[in-house]
What we know:
Elements: H1 3-8, H2 22-27, H3 31-47, H4 53-80, H5 86-118, E1 121-123, H6 131-145, E2 152-154, E3 168-175, E4 182-189, E5 196-199, E6 208-212, H7 213-219, E7 229-230, E8 234-240, H8 254-265, E9 270-275, H9 281-290, E10 298-300, H10 310-314, H11 359-364, E11 368-372, H12 378-390, E12 394-401, H13 409-419, E13 423-428, H14 436-448, E14 452-454, E15 461-462, E16 466-473, E17 476-484, E18 496-503, H15 506-520, E19 532-534, H16 538-554, E20 561-565, H17 571-582, E21 587-591, E22 608-613, E23 618-619, E24 623-626, E25 637-641, H18 647-651, E26 653-660, H19 663-677, E27 683-686, E28 692-694, H20 704-707, H21 709-718
Parallel strand pairs: 1-6, 9-10, 12-13, 13-14, 15-26, 18-23, 20-21, 21-22
Antiparallel strand pairs: 2-4, 3-4, 3-7, 3-8, 5-6, 8-9, 11-18, 12-16, 16-17, 17-18, 19-26, 20-24, 22-27, 24-25, 25-26, 27-28
Amino acid sequence: MSAAAVMASVGDHGVLNKELSGSVSGVWLDRDLGWLDFNDRVLAEALDDRTPLLERVKFLAIFTSNLDEFYMKRVAILRSRSNPDRAKLLAQVRERILESQRRQAECFSEHVAPGLARHGIHLRRWDDLTKAQQDEAGRYFDAEISPALTPLVFGPVHAFPFLSNLSTSLAFLLYDPREEGMRYARVKVPAALKQWVSVEDGVPAGERVLVPLYEAIRGNIHKLYSGMKLTRTTLFRLTRDSEVEMDDDSDEPVEDLVREQVRLRRYEPVVRLEFAPGANPSIREMLRERFELSSEDIYDLPGELDYTSLFQIAGLPGPSPLTPLAPAGPLPVPPSAGLLKDTPWNPMPVTAFHSGHDVFAAIRAGDVLVHHPYESFEDSVEHFIAAAAADPATVAVKMTAYRIGDDTPFVKSLIQAAEGGKQVACAIEIKARFDEERNLHWAAELERAGAHVTFGVQGLKTHAKLALVVRKEALGLRSYVHIGTGNYHVRTARLYADIGLFTCNPAITRDVVRLFHYLTGHSQEPECAVLLVAPVTMRPRVLALITREIANRRAGLPARIVAKMNQLEDPEIIEALCEASSAGVPIDLIVRGFCCLRPGVEGHTENIRVRSIVGRFLEHSRIFHFAAGAENPVEGEFFIGSADWMYRNLSNRVEVVTPILVVSGKEKLWTILDTCLRDRRHGWVLGADGKYSQLSPERSGAGPESLGSHEALMELARHKPE
């Protein structure tokens, strides 16, 4: 099937419908089932007893957080499909989720919670507390919980309460002895409070006893409805759709449209109801009817209702004050094995940017490639912008911002630069889902300081990671740029694996200057000579690179493709990869999340290998290597940037991918790719059957085959030459 025909089958949001035939449909894997596969790999980290115990707790919480996002983003889209496979796919999704939640509950109740108890962290129910501990928790309830609660009733006289997205509630039937009849009552569990309450009475030194917040409320709920008779409580949680369409053709200011979009999201339809064990059938049915849900939208959980509360437990101090548990089995043991937490990692300083070094002189001396979190984000990216803001020679500072977090040092530096009389421009993406309000706040702060704030290009999200510093030097103006694969976000920079390039190469900086003119002004798409820019040149350039590898293979020249990304979904790229595989080009794809290409299909993808790495750090970098006729990988071509090979990235966003031109940068990137390809500790391989298999680590050695890519790359960072 041609790419045009495939694209005609792409529905809203780049979702490929399943009524396809021909080469592409034969290798196509559903993106939503692929996403559930990824989340199961996250769950596998919690199930793995080689993972430190509190890290297992964290992965249990991440699994639920990911699943929440899946329901908010994807379920309404799946239901809106018009093809005949819709019902079948929704049934598959539900079946997969139920099985995963069963394994999650079993992991927590039978392995993680008992393991925590052996380390002196006891997670208890209200009824498991001693009378003295209940009294202590009751006093805490009166002082720190009760004032934040709003007990409600609803029925013929009282309106049904608004239930916010992802809210957890206690519901029950209430009987007033002075009146006839029962009425429903509900108390929301406040998300703003700590979700685990600590008690100290009778607890040995060095140990902890914690009870869930909802249990503390349940144990004291009679205080909220004095004189009333209450039935057994039902604990439930609801999820709302997050897909609110915005009119990009409206004449209203985009910031007003986004504010309205955020407001309307609160009232989107409910797509899921979850109940803890022991739910009252009448309450369950009442809520189902109220939100017009089918039985398929109801989930009766076998264990905890909301594992995201475990983030609080995962944040407890570690390593354990008690004797560590011995790791099981003869397999290689990473340094953190047997502890409650991973051994703390402090990113290494970037040699070129050592304290006291002139960051701009370092960049003039040669391009600098940094790999976070192995190398310090603070000492490189933060330092670059802060130095520009303070430097009298700086004329202008420009940045893109997609997700920048709270209390960001970048906004502070930009404000300092603006107040110092420098030209400051920031292209903020205020349509970044779930970060809209935060980005609107920072946009207002920058505007108050005199910075120029724009919201990108109409109809496109600005996802590129760019920073530009223009300085007045002896020979005239010189531009310095940073191009990255990850957000300018200080917290995630310590958790996500990302790449960044610092350069003052005029061939690259000229393109960046043109691109910022496009983002802040009003013009046609910029003509970039070196950078690959979506939605204009990136797709054709990537296709041309793949086509060249095919031609080289047919000409008997070395040919190979190694690509690392978050997701692979674009049908046209998949079609090109199939053609390259059929021509004999060896292709290695390192795709952390969902991959819609099925490898190992005879005649189509037998030369394609797909692997995923899930571990301590979230693999977020996008790295692309093409042999370009060279036997030595370092003599081939390398690119890094912000875009996955997804339809939305290549067609509906402003994205930037840059070539890496210096040998040292290419060597570094090949080391990263080679390390990932050799990872047998955190590596998973996608088979021709569409299923992932976890690799088994080697039993000896200090490389990624035994320790995994994250430990191996930390070790390389520790011992890099000065």
